[in-house]
């Protein structure tokens, strides 16, 4: 099965073209380059876009704007290529790239997205319940390193690949494929724009 997978929920967007579980190409850039990256990766792999049998999109949690870009891109590709879509949590993909580590995504506003009792949650970094020597990965772990390491966390170097929710993991985690609109974003809190309007 040929899959186009991508995630733009964090500051680093990632795109992969995967065939039968093997990445044919993968890269990181920015959310605004998603379509260009998909096109270039397909060309580099010598793959006809019409051969794509599935689209996998990261559903967050993460940046509201980044999530919207990813979901719209998935819908456009699904319509253009007549391919079904599957959504995969950005936290799950990040965890798949660093087994036994706790994924921590920068949520801005002095908060992070992570798992609490196995469920996605938004937390203050100083409120994370960490076991001694727990390994944390993700841009939230990097941003709050100075706070988390004294609390007992182990955080890989800033440029470690485990801090990125690589799209190849999204492809591997994809379950049922269906209509593009069924891939729903995981926001966990009200977007900044809605907060401003209601204030």
List the defining traits of the structure above.
single chain, 2 domains, five-stranded mixed beta sheet, three-stranded antiparallel beta sheet
Summarize the structure.
The chain has seven helices and ten strands.
Span between N and C termini? 48 Å
**Average pLDDT metric:** 94
- Global shape: elongated
**What is the number of strand segments?**
10
> In the residues, how many domains can be counted?
2
CATH architecture of the largest domain: 2-Layer Sandwich
Main sheet: which strands, in order across?
Answer: 3-2-1-4-5
Unreliable sequence segments: none
What is the beta-strand fraction?
15-25%
CATH class membership of the largest domain: Alpha Beta
- What portion of residues is helical? 25-40%
Computed CA radius of gyration, to the nearest angstrom: 17 Å
- Major beta-sheet overview: 5 strands, mixed
> What is the helix/strand order?
EEEHEHEHEEEEEHHHH
CATH third-tier fold name of the largest domain: Nucleotidyltransferase, domain 5
- What is the structural class? alpha/beta
Output the number of helix runs: 7
The CATH homology group name of the largest domain: ATPase, nucleotide binding domain
């Amino acid at each position: 099965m040929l899959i186009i997978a991508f995630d733009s929920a964090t500051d680093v967007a990632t795109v992969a073209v995967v065939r039968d579980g093997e990445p044919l190409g993968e890269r990181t850039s920015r959310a605004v380059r998603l379509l260009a990256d998909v096109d270039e990766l397909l060309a580099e792999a010598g793959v006809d876009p019409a051969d794509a049998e599935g689209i996998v999109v990261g559903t967050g949690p993460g940046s509201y704007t980044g999530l919207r870009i990813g979901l719209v891109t998935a819908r456009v590709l699904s319509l253009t290529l007549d391919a079904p879509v599957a959504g995969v949590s950005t936290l799950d993909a990040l965890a798949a790239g660093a087994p036994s580590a706790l994924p921590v995504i920068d949520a801005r506003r002095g908060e992070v997205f992570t798992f609490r009792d196995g469920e996605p949650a938004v937390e203050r970094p100083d409120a994370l319940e960490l076991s001694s020597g727990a390994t944390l990965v993700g841009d939230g772990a990097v941003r709050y390193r100075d706070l988390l390491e004294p609390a007992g966390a182990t955080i890989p170097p800033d440029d470690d690949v485990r801090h990125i929710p690589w799209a190849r993991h999204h492809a591997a985690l994809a379950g049922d494929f269906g209509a593009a609109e069924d891939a729903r974003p995981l926001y966990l809190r009200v977007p900044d724009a809605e907060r401003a309007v209601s204030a």
